Give the backbone structure.
Amino acid sequence: MAGSHFSGSSLVVRLLVSLSLVFATYNPTGYSFYHWALDSGSGPLSLKLLAGLSLLMVYYAAFRIVLAAFRRSGVIVATLVVILCVVELALLTPRPTESSWQLYITAGQYVVLLAIAILVSFGISWSLLIERLTGQLQKRYVRR
């Protein structure tokens, strides 16, 4: 991208947008699209369908960009890294008592949601990051 300026703040903005998207869709606190859509008395069905279709279109566009940037093998490697990080986190934490299982389940949900947001933000930023680091344009995104 000739003339584009990619900096650390650009990556932070993309990370914040992807965090907002992922946590607005679902989060363990109960204030998300998922919880709102399942609540039968909290809004008209047409508005819920419109919001759901809008989220679906945004996720489709984001994951198309991520798959184009990382390709299938990159997404598999990123998923394996996330799984290894979750396993390492589980091994480092002390054994839970029966009363603290809810805390560990909630922490696990946050870790998975954060990992999805990081994957999306790096996938969206990947071509600009590679261009900034190497000076090479990512031509595989241009279709003729």
Notes: The chain is about 75% helix and 0% strand. The mean pLDDT is 81. Residues 70 and 123 are 7 Å apart (CA to CA). The chain has one domain: 8-141.
